[in-house]
Amino acid sequence: MELLVIEDDPQIGKSLRQGLCEAGHGCSWAKDGLRGLELAAAQQYDAIVLDLMLPGRPGLEVLQELRDRGVRTPVIVLTAMGAVEDRVSGLQAGADDYVVKPFALVELMARLEAVCRRTASRPSAVMQAGPLALDLTTRRVTRDGREIELTPTEFSLLELLMRYAGHIVTRRMLCEHLWESNWEGATNVIEVHINRLRGKLDKGYDKSVIQTVRGRGYALRAS
Q: What value does the CA radius of gyration of the chain take, rounded to a whole number of Å?
């Protein structure tokens, strides 16, 4: 599994990443809410382990923002012993499960495997932005109901733009989403892919759904 741990406690975060990697899983570690939200929205993970008490942005806000953006990645929240209200709030905000601190790694891993099994049987996750629909399960894209064939790279670009529909997506964000790199030399390649994506999405239409924001990046029209 590819996992994301969002935890500000250095001892817990380091221990989780080490234990999960030793168990054969890929694991990214974000040490604050803002970075965690950025990674969770830009990359595809099998599950997220989210502490609720985070600097930068509280874990509950991170969770709510992800669900509002259509990110359906399973989330397990970490709560303090006896914090019943935190557990209830987390589940109501869209968490799939919770683990009470202190916890054993074997328990967390069992819960991660369980939520991933449940997710595998969920119906298709479809993102909507104006006339566009993107199905994350079938990888089908339509505009006004008309299906559009995209390459894997074009699909990934559109997915990120739709997650941030109505907002600017920088070239750096696009580079990191595609190649986990912020190498500035890749921006020309991004422009080529965006132009090809535009050509496919806008064929037969007068108005483009992707706007270029000069000097900053791109934005997908939300309506």
A: 19
